[in-house]
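Dear support,

I submitted the protein below through the web form. The confirmation email said the job was done, but the results page showed an empty box. After a refresh the structure appeared. I'm attaching both so you can tell me whether what I see now is the final result or a partial one.
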Amino acid sequence: MPGAFDDDPNDIAVRPKGLLGNGLPAALHEANVIVRAPVGTTLESIPAPRPPAGEGELTPEEEKAFEACKAGVDNLHKAFWIAGKSLETMAAGNLHRNSGHPNFADFVRFTWDISESQVYRLIDEWRIGEALSQLGWHPRESQVRELTDLKASAGDKAAVAVYDAVARTGKRVTANLLKEVTRRLPPLTSDATQAEIGQMVRGILAPPPAHEVPAESKPETAAVTGAGAEQSASSVASGPEGPVHNITTVGGGENSPIGESSPQASNPKGSTGSSADLDRLTETLALLREAERGLSKPAVRRAVEADPAAAATVLSEIDSTLNRLGRMVAVRRPE
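What the results page shows now:
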């Protein structure tokens, strides 16, 4: 059975209905009686974090805020972002000061058995969860956890845009899928727009099929050289729908100078017929074009600025890989 912060394999992804999809507004319109949600069960019922009113007894307003926040954390299994906001409000206002636990982390551990690291993780994540819930998604904490590094470098909006883009591809959103997508994204900044992020995510999760190569770019008439593409020589990524191929899918086979591009040889009988070799060239060209679309000079510059040593190593490997490919295709061609 999955925990409060794990992906539930039985969850069915539901596309948000929104304002025009007979969602919550339609339900409220049809209702005869307006029922208010209990305090602590909605984000709006949690007071905003603010400094304590004093050092002594809680004021009536603080007592109400304290009770609402405790109810919010009790709803942790339903909406972690409500719990996160509740925790931040209690910590910021020192609302636990009369609980017998002067240390906030001790108070939370005693009351709800939540570790200190988990407390501050929830505080760090609740704004992302709130934004996604307003878009109609129902993220799990384990999923948003994979976006916190991205949030730290590019902000909440970028993290929300990545989750939203992944969800809109129709794939089932999991923590592992978000981890893989964020790993393969180029370094993002707060200047990245939602449209740009969406395009990059779709390029990662739904690259053009290798066999769909324009007729004018077929290997019979197009030369592949080592100077026309840029891509990291990373390993094949494994997503929830199977392997996601990239440039390094090609190479390494013992029976071919460029290797096989799939687990099985194109010609299982071992024939030296031209069709198998032409298939390899066609797929190589498609992968190179995909790699070229996935990078840009600004992305490379940002990578170098972020981690010069690691970027230099990757760029050196890219150069070596492209040089090897260039030597492999340096053969006499028909006039």
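Response: this is the final, complete result; the empty box was a page-load delay. The chain has 13 helices and two strands.
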